[in-house]
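Table S2 (text version). Query chain:
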Amino acid sequence: MKTFTFSFFSFLLLSVTLIFSACKKDNQAKANPDEIPYPECDDDVTIDDAIIMRFEYTNFEGQEPTVTISPDKTDARVKYDSAQYTPTREGNKMVIRIPNIKLSDRDHNYIAKCVTIEEFDATRPASDRWFEQTEFKNQREFAETKIATMLCLDVSSSLGEDREKVKQNAIDFAEQIFTNTNNESYVGLVLFADEVITYPFTNNLTDIEAAINS
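Corresponding structure-token output:
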């Protein structure tokens, strides 16, 4: 049985405040099974930004391989459909797929800047029991979530001084969606004024700004 950790090094999509997590480093006397690996991201991402998911992988002879997520060792901000998955053999590779992973809490959504995958091996020296497998480093794949958001705005003159503030907040929100996700994320609009006007989904911020300010 092998224990692995996914480390999602992330930033907030809709907030400027990070929620930090940290853990003591390994020492020569005893390996720390909850150690957090260092990120491979460029930018300003640090170990304090880590969101951890841990799972166990088994592949005993004569039995079907299994992957089981460890909920008690996984960050509550990691959302997944099921705790158990079945790896598949593709050629000479065993492929582990854990689809539909989401990083969020009640207040925020997170975007993964990079993913680090390490294996824990209790037979290795105490200072080096967490290590990154070359096979994962070279073959891992990670896809960003595609987002489609419909904004419903009251832009009528009855808002008074708040009208321009509401419009700018909507534009800022759309900009965050386009900036922090891939180019397959979209925003649509429903504007309530003297009449209701609907604008189709677009991934062009200029279109959103023009529609809101029209």
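Notes on Table S2: The first helix runs from residue 134 to 139. The chain has a mean pLDDT of 73.
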